[in-house]
Amino acid sequence: MNKRPPSVDSLLRDAAMAAPIAAHGLEVVKGRIRALQAEMRAAGELPTWVSDRSEWATRIEHALDATHGTGLTPVFNLTGTLIHTNLGRALLSPQLITAALSAATHPVALEYDVEEGHRGDRDRLVEPMLCALTGAEAATVVNNNAAAVLLVLNTLARDREVPVSRGELIEIGGSFRMPDIIERAGCRIREVGTTNRTHPRDYAETIGELTGVLLKVHPSNYRIEGFTREVDTPQLAAIAKQHTLPLIVDLGSGALLDLERFALPHEPTPRETLAQGADIVTFSGDKLLGAVQAGLIVGRRDLVERIRRNPLKRALRTDKITLAVLRETLKLYQEPERAVREIPTLRALAEPTERVAARATALADALRARLSADFVVSVIKSMCQVGSGALPGTVVPSAAVSVAAAHDKQLRQLAERMRALPVPVLGRIHDGVLLLDLRATADVEPLLANLARLESP
C-alpha cells in the first residue's frame, strides 16, 4: 500500500464520528475502526474513500447498527397487537415515569425503616396495596412471572412431585416452557389427564406421598377448543384441601379489574382466584396490569413467608425503580375509574372505536399525500389483538389504514421505508395489503410529523 489509513485517534477526534460514538460508545467504535483497518491491511489495498472522514463514520455506524442493534429505539406500534412482547409490552403514563425518575435520582428508603432507624423490607412498599386489591394475607414481588412460578415451586415443592394437567404444560415467550421451569425449580412433573380433557379423578389418582403442591396454569396465552374439559379452581382447591396440599395458580396476565367492563371476555382476577380456594396466586406486572416487568406472588401468609426466606428470592428480587412504578400503579387501581383514565393499557382497551377511526383517517390523508398513484389508501374496520400472553384469541374492534399496491414488492418496499423513518413505523402485511392499526397509538400528531420524511417506493 502506498499510503496508510487515518489513525484511530484522529478518526475518533473527528466531528463526523460523534454520532456513532453517541449511539454505541467510545470503546465499541474504537474496536470497529481497528477491525476495519485490519480488513484493509489484509486486502493489501486501500479503498478510494479511505481519506473521507464522513464515509468512515457512516460505514462504522452502519456496521455497528447491523451487528449491535440501535438500542432501545422508539417506534410507532401500528401492528394490530396492543401489548406487544417484542415492543416492550405495557406503556407507562407520565405520572409513573415521574415516580421512576425520583427513585432513580435520589437516595430512597428501599430497605430502611425510617421511623425505627434500622434495616427494613422492600416488600412493604407494595405489599399492603397488593393485599388490599387481591384479598391476600401477604404478598411479595420478583422480577417476572416465570421467576415467581420458579420461586414458589422451589420453596414449596422442591424434590417433590407436582401434578399438572397436560393441557397446561405450556410454552411461553422466547421458547421457555412450563415443564422446564418446574424442573429447574427442583420438582418432578406428574402429568395429569390428557391434552384436551382433565377430570378431578385424574388429580386424585395421581396424588401420593411425594406430592408437594397442586399447580394450575391459567391459559393466558393459549386456548384449546372443541371437546375439552378442565378442572376449575374451586374443584382443584377442594382436592388440595382434602389432601392438605397447597394449591398454586399461575394466572399469567394479571388482570386486577374485571375486563368485561371493556366488552372483553372475563379474565379471572387474583382476588376471585384466592376466594375460590387458591393458596398462592402468581401473575405478571407488565401485561394486563399495565405496569412494569414483575412477578407478583400473593396468598397465604405462612406460605409467602416461606417464599420470602428462600435464598433464591434475593437473586430474583426487583429493583427500586420497578417497585416505585409498581407502587404508583397499584395506587391508581384503588380508584378503578382513575386507573382506566391514567394507565395506558386500560385506556387503550376502553377507548371508543370512533376516536381510533379519526386517527386512522388523519393517517390515511397523510399517506395519500406522500404516496404515488400506484398505492390505494383506505380506512377500514379492523380487529386489534390484546397480545403478549393475555386473553388468547381475543380481539378489540379497531380502525386501520389499508394500503394496497399492484405488486407485493411495492408493499414490502413501503414497509421497509416506514421502518427506516427517524422513528420506525411498524405495521403488518396481511392478505396482500399493508395494515396500520391505530389503537395502540394514542397521539397521531407525532406520527404524522414523522411521516413527513417518508419517500414513496
Task: Give an overview in words.
With 457 residues, the chain is α/β, with parallel strands linked by helices. Helix content is 42%, strand content 18%. The strands form six sheets. A five-stranded mixed beta sheet has the order 4-12-11-10-9, sandwiched between helices. A hairpin with a 2-residue loop joins β16 and β17 (433-437). The radius of gyration is 26 Å and the shape is globular. The relative contact order is 0.13.
List the keywords:
single chain, 457 residues, alpha/beta, Aspartate Aminotransferase, domain 1, Aspartate Aminotransferase, domain 2, 3 domains, 5-stranded mixed β-sheet, 4-stranded antiparallel β-sheet, 17 strands
Reported for the largest beta sheet, the result is: 5 strands, mixed
Mean pLDDT: 91
CATH architecture type of the largest domain: 3-Layer(aba) Sandwich
Number of domains: 3
Provide the spatial order of strands within the biggest beta sheet. Answer: 4-12-11-10-9
Q: How many separate helices?
A: 19
Structural class: alpha/beta
Question: What's the Cα radius of gyration?
Answer: 26 Å
Q: What is the CATH T-level topology of the largest domain?
A: Aspartate Aminotransferase, domain 2
Point out poorly predicted stretches.
none
Tally the beta strands. Answer: 17
Q: What's the CATH first level of the largest domain?
A: Alpha Beta
End-to-end CA span: 41 Å
Strand content range: 15-25%
* Helical content (DSSP H or I, runs of 4+): 40-55%
CATH superfamily of the largest domain: Type I PLP-dependent aspartate aminotransferase-like (Major domain)
Shape: globular
